[in-house]
Amino acid sequence: MYQPQPATTLRLARPLKRSVLAMGVETKNAIALGRSREITLFPMVGDLADPDTRMRLERGARALLDGEFPPEVIAVDLHPDMYPTVFGRQLARERGLPVIEIQHHSAHAAACMAEHGLQEGLALSLDGMGWGTDGTLWGAELLQMTPGRSLRLGTFAPVPLPGGDAAVRHPDRQLVARWLDAGVAISDGWRQRHGLTPGAITIWTEQWRRRLNAPMSHAAGRLFDAFAALLGIAPGTIGHEGEPAMLLEAEARRFHGILSHEHRLPYALGYHDGVLLVDWAETFRQFPPEKCLTPEEVTLWAYAFHLAVASAIQEMVQYAHQLTGLHAVALSGGVFMNGLLKDHLIVSLEHQGFQVFCHRQIPVGDGSVAVGQAWMIGEKE
Question: What distance in Å separates the CA atoms of residue 37 and residue 135, rounded to the nearest whole number?
Answer without folding.
Answer: 34
